Amino acid sequence: MCVSTDAHPLTDPDAEGVDPERRREVQERGLRRLVRRLLDADGVQARRLRERGITDHRDVSLADLPRLPMVTKQDLWDHYPLGFQADDRIVCVHGSSGTGGRPTLVPYTAHDVDVWAQVMARALAGAGVTRRSLIHNAYGYGLFTGGLGVHHGGMRLGAAVLPISGGMTERQVRLVADLRPDVLCCTPSYAIHLGEALAKAGVEPTFKVGIFGAEPWTEEMRGQVEGVLGLRAFDIYGLSEVIGPGVACESWDSVGMLNVAEDHFYVEAVDVEGNPVPDGTPGELVFTTLTKTGMPLLRYRSGDVASLAGPAPGSARTLRRMSKVLGRRDDMLVVRGVNVFPSEIEAVLLADPRVSPHYLVVEDRRDPARPELRVVVESTPEAGRELAGALRERLGISCAVEVVAEGVVPRSETGKAKRLARWSAGQPPVPGLT
Ligand code: DLL
């Protein structure tokens, strides 16, 4: 096994390292081909384009993008199951379980799977994975894109992939001891869980790097993951609608931001009205899939809030970068008129070493006239009192800190961690909360 820490090879120099002006030309051609595919498919997106007077792909340029129509998750739900499919050469379907049990399904052509393998191979290589690596892939395999996304990319890179998937932690501990993998891929919350299980079993972690995503996590959480597993933790971002993991990923030289694979996924950041925000200002990410064929999307509103920036100075990668995701637009809590992202709460909690990384933010709206923000932590009563002060200072509103015993906050062995519960009636989201 071998992780590369001192070289940061570009697996795709023509795409990752090209002069941005030249990339823009490639993107522009990609945009025109996309518009042609959409008009030919004659679906919802074609109708909206025609309504805006666009009947020929040669009419559009990148500069026109802000006035082109957008697609939302609601549109995908309204045309469930496969109303946005634009090609009949489908080889697989993935998706996300989504809120309210409504899945979003995404059909892929062989070409799309090839693009996916390519961007995932890039992402893994940027984090130091080599063809001599063994990847312990504990993202779930199935409809969820995490498991198979890493699988495709790892194999494309020539690394070995252990498709352990999520859950059955005892078996995972056993295989870490027996196979000594150097790369861990899973959600950041499962990384902590696995790290704790390894410590409990007296097994020394063997990982050099970890590539974690699929849920929001802060710099403080990164510190915890690196501490418990003794590895370097990288953030990877993606969403099923666009391709899955691999839309953007940190590399050794990306200075805390994620390189966007913008030759395939053109990114914009917009405000609530859909107007562009300047680099450095948080906005909702909007993606245009320049090369996808199975379910191509023009200006898909992701719901994820992050800021954009140019390439890292001095890096061989010339790609635009995105910050870590601050949260989802619809996860933003508005409590007594103040906007709060759960990630801001996490930053305060995990800055205190007495607090376990397992926590839950509860938006208690049982009395609609007096909504309350409550934070359930596993810690000491003394730390709980101090946290209440620190949270008031950071957020500008007071919230109740509820201290519970270790193990009370529900853990997720598979899937994404649940960090936010909205409580308007019925059973408490954590046992014992009144
Ligand atoms: O979560 C794809 C993925 C798998 C990404 C493995 C990274 C690693 P979905 O299930 O469709 O796809 O969920 C997409 O998850 O819109 C974000 O809200 C959230 N998300 C994904 N990665 C991150 C991240 C996969 N690194 C939704 N940070 C997205 C914060 C993330 N949120």
From TrEMBL:
It comes from the Bacteria. InterPro entries: AMP-bd_C_sf, AMP-dep_Lig_C, AMP-dep_synth/lig_dom, ANL_N_sf, PA_CoA_ligase. Residues 337-420 form the AMP-dependent ligase C-terminal domain. Pfam families: AMP-binding, AMP-binding_C_2. Residues 1-24 are annotated as: Disordered. GO terms for molecular function: nucleotide binding; phenylacetate-CoA ligase activity. CDD domains: PaaK (cd05913). Its EC number is 6.2.1.30. Residues 85-287 form the AMP-dependent synthetase/ligase domain. Pathway: Aromatic compound metabolism; phenylacetate degradation. One of its GO terms (biological process) is phenylacetate catabolic process. Gene3D superfamilies: 3.30.300.30, N-terminal domain of ligase-like. Keywords: Ligase, Nucleotide-binding. Monomer. Belongs to the phenylacetyl-CoA ligase family. This is Phenylacetate-coenzyme A ligase. The lineage of its organism: Bacteria, Bacillati, Actinomycetota, Actinomycetes, Pseudonocardiales.
